[in-house]
Every structure is written in structure tokens, then in C-alpha cells.
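ok so I'm stuck.
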Amino acid sequence: MAMTDDPYIPDLVTTGEAADIMGMTRQGVSAQVEAGTLPARRIGRYTLIRRSVAEAARTRADPSHE
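replied:
not stuck anymore, here's the structure
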């Protein structure tokens, strides 16, 4: 569910939320961010990922989730 309906503000999720979406551990998501294979931004103490990127990564990993 989107946090905002403003089209100029992307829907962002934490690494833990991305892990749930992608069906993997938070550490696995963090490893992908560190490796540069999953784009993310560090905001304060949080690493944030666009929800659409996490959903696309899940679909690439397991096409049956579509």
C-alpha cells in the first residue's frame, strides 16, 4: 500500500520490508544493496528502496509471484 498518492514522492520501503516483499532475509537485501545490484538510498539510519524495485526483483527471482 502506498504511503502517499503524490506522484512526485516515491513509495519507499526499508530493507526489512523489501525482504518481506522479495521473500528473502534483511541481510540478503543488505548484501544486494552493498554489492550494487539493488539500488537504494541511505536516509539517516535507514536504507530505503523503492517498492517497485523490490517488487520487480521478486518477480525476476520467482516469476510465479506475478
